[in-house]
């Protein structure tokens, strides 16, 4: 879903640079946070390009994770069906709080 396709009830909250792990590849792109969903859009130069759309209603929890087990810049978004999306982001505490605050919207 592109940003131009969002409906009028959707409110943009934040848009940040991020990486999303797809298998072993850390795919670079942008993470858009709205009041209704997370939308990760990869840069076109990645091997695994494309968009990952996560409705807020499908998120069970969000938590901190360390990239490579050491670097404190990771965030895991765990869905109600058990799927885990692993992101690398800056200011993860603020992003996690933002997502958790909007999960009930």
Describe, in plain words, how this protein is organized in 3D.
The protein is mainly β and 105 residues long. Helix content is 10%, strand content 52%. The chain contains one helix and seven strands; from the N terminus they run βββββββα. It has one helix at 92-102; strands at 12-22, 25-34, 37-42, 51-55, 59-67, 71-79, 84-88. It has a seven-stranded antiparallel sheet with strand order 4-3-2-1-7-6-5, with helices on one face. The longest helix has 11 residues, at 92-102. The chain starts with 11 loop residues before the first strand and ends with a helix.
Q: What are its keywords?
A:
1 helix; single chain; 7 strands; 105 residues; mainly beta; seven-stranded antiparallel sheet
Write the layout of secondary structure elements.
Elements: E1 12-22, E2 25-34, E3 37-42, E4 51-55, E5 59-67, E6 71-79, E7 84-88, H1 92-102
Antiparallel strand pairs: 1-2, 1-7, 2-3, 3-4, 5-6, 6-7
Query: Strand order across the biggest sheet?
Result: 4-3-2-1-7-6-5
Q: Tally the helices: what do you get?
A: 1
What's the story with the biggest beta sheet? Answer: 7 strands, antiparallel
**Oligomerization status of the protein chains:** single chain
The 3D shape can be described as: globular
Distance between the termini: 19 Å
Mean pLDDT: 87
Percentage of residues in strands? over 45%
Task: State the order of secondary-structure elements, H for helix, E for strand.
Answer: EEEEEEEH
Q: How much helix is in the residues?
A: 10-25%
């Amino acid at each position: 879903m592109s940003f131009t396709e969002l409906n009028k009830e959707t409110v943009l909250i934040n848009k940040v640079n991020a990486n999303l792990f797809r298998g072993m590849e850390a795919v670079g792109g942008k993470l858009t946070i709205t009041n209704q969903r997370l939308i990760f859009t990869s840069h076109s130069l990645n091997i695994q390009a494309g968009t990952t759309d996560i409705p807020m209603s499908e998120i069970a929890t969000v938590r901190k994770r360390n990239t490579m087990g050491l670097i404190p810049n990771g965030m895991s978004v765990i869905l109600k069906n058990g799927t885990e999306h692993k992101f690398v982001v800056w200011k993860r505490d603020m992003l996690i709080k933002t997502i958790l605050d909007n999960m009930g919207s």
